[in-house]
Specification:
Oligomer: homodimer
Strand content of chain A: 35-45%
Number of helices of chain A: 5
Helix content of chain A: 10-25%
Number of strands of chain A: 12
Distance between the termini of chain A: 38 Å
């Protein structure tokens, strides 16, 4: 498994802002689970806040609500088949870590596991539930972040519907006087 | 200007889920404005709901709060320089449509203008303000969607921080029994 190093919390937006599919991992009473998710957005730089929708029909929903903890794991295209597989069965009936040969690693702060194969892992706590009942929308705070330092240009997956995923192509660099004007 | 056709509301998630930078346009008392935004997420398929953060320091914030209307416009890399330019000045001091030669087009349902140069345009109304005060987070309902039917593989912009944008590369197609397992 790749050796991860701590990633600066004020840089977390750079991982999530371009819209990658992520794997959301949770644990409850020793039972681990993981689901793919594309409906997430940054909400604040420091501390990094992330808003995300977890459908109330998903097994993850009850675990997240009960434990208030999860890990956002960012996979690359090497994991594409496993990502799709994780979305097509429920953690109610299948131990997806075993079934799809994903490696749970112990997190530093939360009880939910890291998915070791993902190049970045964000340990999160639920900090706001005001929109959970109406929209299944959780506000998470990233409390610890990890990255595989060898991965310089991750081939992240960007879901375009119906099993189609865009992967990164050319990069444009444009002069911008602000760190992230896009939410300034 | 490209001729747009109506886009099905239940397909809107396919435009926003992969995480493109968008241009958010607004109007108040005849004064138009536009800002780039990357902090957005789908929240529901039908009617399509989109959550987004508009910083309270932005001129757009007050307009959006006052009018409850906006348009989410999806640019391609052909507009990259203008997108960045729109993020580096405030609508308080500059008419960005004029300054950056963007064409405002009349929307069907809302008073905010479409940015004609963008290949897709989503007319939106604010439907929930519960997280506005604390997080500058607005829940929008897309009430009408437009697309340029000639654009088959849009080169969307995906912000990675510090003026770096990823553009789409290879597409992966994986068998998935569900329309969008990623939020199922």
């Amino acid at each position: 498994m790749p050796k991860k190093i701590k990633y600066s919390l004020d840089q977390v937006y750079r991982l999530l802002e371009p819209g990658p599919v992520v794997l959301l991992s949770t644990a409850r009473a020793g039972r681990l689970n993981v689901m793919p998710m594309s409906w997430h957005t940054m909400m604040e730089f420091v501390p990094p806040l992330v808003g995300c929708v977890v459908s109330s029909g998903n097994y993850t929903f009850e675990t997240l609500r009960a434990t208030g903890e999860c890990v956002i794991n960012v996979p690359t295209s090497a994991l594409a088949k496993k990502v799709v597989a994780c979305g097509n069965v429920s953690g109610r009936s299948v131990d997806k870590f075993k079934e799809f040969e994903l490696t749970p690693a112990v997190a530093a702060v939360v009880k939910a596991p890291l998915v070791a194969e993902c190049y970045a892992n964000l340990e999160c706590r639920v900090v706001d539930r005001k929109l959970v009942t109406k929209y299944n929308f959780f506000v998470l705070e990233v409390v610890r972040a990890w990255i595989d330092p060898r991965v310089k240009r991750p081939r992240t997956l960007h879901h375009q519907g119906e099993g189609v995923f865009m992967t990164p192509g050319r990069t444009l660099k444009l002069p911008s006087p602000k760190t992230s004007f896009l939410s300034a």
